[in-house]
Structures are given as C-alpha cells and as structure tokens.
Amino acid sequence: MLGGAGPIQPQLASFLPDWLNPDVFLRDSPLGPWVVLVVCAIVFSETGLLVGFFLPGDSMLFTAGLLVATGAINFNLWAMCGLIIVAAILGNQTGYLIGSKAGPAIFNKPDSRLFKRENVESAHAFFEKHGGKALILARFVPIIRTFVPVIVGVAQMDKRKFFLYNVIGAVLWGGGVTLLGAWLGQFSWVGNNIDIIFIAIVLVSVIPIGIEVLRGMSAKRQAAHFGTDAVDEFIEEHEPQEERKTNLD
Known about the structure:
This protein is mostly helical. The protein is built from twelve helices and no strands. The longest helix has 33 residues.
C-alpha cells in the first residue's frame, strides 16, 4: 500500500458542488471498497451516454487513484485500473452503437436542458480535425469525449478500427489518470492541496474545449454566410440510404 500523504481536506475543493466533487462522494464512502463500482458507473455514463457529459471524469479518476494510494479506499490499485478501463471501453462501444443506430435522430433533436447542439458541433469539429485519433485524444477532453464516439458511430467507422482506438484511449485515460493520481498521492502536498489540483485539471481540460468552441463559432459563421450547416451535412452524408429515401419522399 502506498503512503505518505496526509488526510485530504475536502472542504478546500469547494468550487465544486458536493455531488460533483469526487473528494466528497468517494472519500469515507459508506460503500467502502464498493465505491469503485460508482467510479466505473460514472466512467461508463460519461463516455457512453449522452446525458453524462457533465460528470467529473478526470478529477474523479485522479482522486480515486490518490485515495487508493493513501488507503482511504481499501482496494487494489491495479484491479481498480482494470475495472475503470473495462468501463471506459464499454462506454465508448455504447456511444458508437447509439450513433450507428440513432445518430441522425439524436443530433437533429432541438436544444434542451441537457442536450446542446453546440456540444455536437464541437465534437464534430474535433473528429473532422483528428480523424480516428480523435477517439484517443477525446478521452482527455470533457464533453467532447461523450459525443465523439456517437459521431464516429454515425460515420460508420470500421468496427475493428474503432475498437482498437477505443482500447488504446481507455488504457491511456482510464488507467493513466488513475495511476497519476496514485503516484502523486504519495506526496503530502498533493493530498493537502487537492483543490489546487482540481483547478489545474479543470483548466487543462477547458483549454481544448475553448479552442474547439472558437473553431465551432467560426464554422457556424461560415455556415451562416454560405447557407450551410456542417453538422447537417455530416448527418446527411452518413445517413443510411433507406432513411435518406424516406426523407426525400
């Protein structure tokens, strides 16, 4: 068991509501070691279900690793990493299935409290720029990682190629961020300044989002100027032939 870090001070990370603050709902959980299943459920939801885009993926994985390292969660670190990786793989596979079966219907849905078309546009731009590598890179970008697998499903990427990128991304993100938290959890400064770590994680995560949002705004202005919509064109291009004929009729 790794050690060295003092008790974490959850009150410091007060910029997050308790139900989104992983240091609150993971530390001293009444579930004991079973709290790892909560981590896996959140990972699956954020990477596979469109409504999970707001969940605290990066900070939660980092905190889970740190809490295992300090003994606050009594669970084998490598077993937890394995479960997280499996949950991340299954999540992306679910997102791909959603996109391949019901993508156009979902993307054409008007804005609601949970679903924002701008999220789709940002993920679409991300995929168009990075191609297959977007599946790996998107793992490290909140919100984007929720929508890219769905868009890839709409695009009907080869299933074997998708699975390969899916596994690589799950290992690098799910396992990597968790192990990083466990390694840094050995240092007392990290445990005593978890709020600063959370802020740093959020800032690093927001930078790619900001870039993609700016690009999305630029693309939206161009679309308005030329009377086109990039997402609509993408949907129409990848819409199954039978559905396209039905729409034309």
